[in-house]
Amino acid sequence: MYLALHYLNRSQSRRPIMYTIRNTKDSDIISLIEIEKSVAKAFLEDPDLAWIANSSVQTIDGHRKTIINGYSILAAHESGQLVSFFKC
Fold this sequence. Notes:
By secondary structure, the chain is an alpha+beta fold. It is about 30% helix and about 25% strand. The model has no long low-confidence stretch (mean pLDDT about 85).
C-alpha cells in the first residue's frame, strides 16, 4: 500500500475535524500530484530519507490507471481540500 499525506494547519478550535474517505476520481489527479510533492518536501528534514524528496511523482496516466482499476481512495478535509490518498 502506498500512502501520501498532506498536512493541514491545525485548527485552533477544539472541535473535531471531519474527514471523508471516498473513491478517487479522474478530476482529483492534479491534486494527488500536489499532495505527493508536498509530502516529498517533508522528507527533506531527515537526511536518511531526503532521497525521497528528489524522486519523481507518479504520472497522470499512472494515477488514471490506478483509479480505473479501483485501487485508489482518498481523504478529504471537511472543507473539501484533499489531504491524503491511498493506493493498494
